[in-house]
Amino acid sequence: MDFRISAGVLCAAISFSAVASAQDTQNLVELGAHTFADNCQKCHQIDGYGEEALYPSLRDPQLLANKPLLIKTILHGRTAQQADGTEEPRMPSLDYLTNREITALIAFISKSWGNEVLLVNSEDITQAR
Length: 129
Ligand code: HEC
Prior knowledge:
Elements: H1 2-39, H2 41-44, H3 67-76, E1 78-81, E2 87-91, H4 99-113, H5 122-128
Antiparallel strand pairs: 1-2
The protein binds heme C.
Heme C (HEC) binds next to α2, α3, β1 and β2.
């Protein structure tokens, strides 16, 4: 009897935490959608396809599984080396975004255009700053 009760409580606890974390992910993806609209969409476009020759498409599952590359690109932006050796700015640094906003952005773009939701750690972002 005792056993059955505690097993029931345990099952309830497990399913509660699964629901809570799905809700967390959903909240994160929603925050990511807003953050994308405010900070990325003007170049990469609302559908992530970008603009040919100017802004690359983000709809690439391999890119959207690469945590270090995504974190680094968002924090530090991108430059392109010119023929004369100087660096031309291509994508601005977006390091004013908080760790949570960056986590949310990566969750949103990977859910929308990758194979699965990619969740990064706040510590990984802090380390890359
Ligand atoms: C001012 C325009 C601009 C904005 C704003 C911008 N990007 Fe970019 N982004 C670019 C350009 C241009 C490149 C390509 C840089 C290069 O040539 O390497 C790029 C590259 C990238 C890449 C790498 C693509 C690859 O194939 O390696 C990722 C990922 C990315 N951007 C994500 C974002 C996210 C997320 C945001 C918003 C937080 C954002 N960008 C905001 C212009 C922009």
